[in-house]
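Thread: "does anyone have the structure for this chain?"

Original post by V.I.:
We have the sequence but no experimental structure in hand. Need at least a predicted one for the grant figures.
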Amino acid sequence: MNPIPTAQTLNPSSINVPALRRKVAWRVLPLVFSLYIVAYLDRANVGFAKLRMASDLQFSDAVFGLGIGIFFIGYLILEIPGALLVERWSARKWFARILISWGLISALTAFVKTPVEFNVARFFLGVAEAGFFPGIIVYFTHWFTAQDRTRALSGLVIAIPFSLALGAPVSGLLLEVNWMGLAGWKWLFILEGLPAVILGFVTLRCMTDRPRDAKWLSQAERDYLEGALRSEAEAKEGSNKITFPQLLRMRNVWLLALGIFATNTGGYALTFWLPSMVKSLSGGTDRATLLYSGLFYGCGLVGVFISGQSADRTGDRKWHCVFGQAATAFFLAGSAIAGQPFGVVMAWLCLTGFVTYFWPSPFWALPTLTLTASTAAVAIGFINMCANLAGWLGNYQMGWLRSRGYGDAACLIFLSSCYLVGAILVSLVKIPRAGPARA
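Reply from O.Q.:
Generated one for you, tokens below.
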């Protein structure tokens, strides 16, 4: 029986490694990027639908706050098991299941009539989507070595503002239709949910689980890539393991976990409640409101690109992250100043959009810069759980504030304070002197 090839037993000179890396990136990333665009739109489009859905169903802001937030409770339940299924079963089959189920549930949200039905739909949407993002992280370990994996993951961050910048104006158009006796907000859920179902079948047909299954690679390329990834995995297996109780005694872990918890408490609430606040501040139509929202996320596209380029060029991650968080707090507070015309408020919000996506990419590099490899692997899971739990708290709190008569200015100050607390906590993270070299 022939021995399993490793990166050491193969002759790298027979493989054009840069060309192989590009081939893998162009084959794997476009599909995953498309899936993440649809995933984030189906998660956040309830904020667009709320403009008409709330009045049609007589739902209060408190009802929406709970329903929006309960998504994250469902998401947490299967987050870790989902990632394990990608590792031990099949990314292709698991992602296809996720896409088809969440697309159907998102579309069926069009037919809810009561707060209980709305909460159930949002909970099961979270359950359906759970494991998708951590599954992507695991899937990338099957295709990219460490030097390429961080760049591939940071590219996914662009999908968030891209999804919302595209989804906002499209949702504005859908809100105006009234086909077959169904209100526009119902068609919004239906027509934005169905692409996930379609992509589920595309994934089943087009996604490749691992290099050894890739018919689009030569045998030598498959062997080299499998060997390189296996060598990297074996090196990590040789490092010291860390237990969860040991993890919880580490200062940097708590600063990172609490930092993203505070930031995402404001960040997720801003994503879901932005259309409602813009409509209230502008007094404009629903279509104009969503065009303004699209402009906000368009500025975010520019911000995330510049952040990635600047962080890579300077080697700094911590202060890029802190800058994005602190600047978001400052610009949100500026938009809350009383007596400003809407044009000035929108200028503040565009600046907010630019910086609010400035921090995520450098933030997710910090665990690997401040912790050992074995510690970072465990810490990232814990930090990500805190990040998602913040989605429940932030949206619940926004619904509570608005249901008790607090205006847009008070809500904007609440969001601003969340980002400011996050910036302070991350600024306290200690990076070892060897950090930049390790990056």
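V.I.: this helps a lot. The chain has 19 helices and no strands.
O.Q.: and Residues 1-9, 435-439 have pLDDT under 50 and may be disordered.
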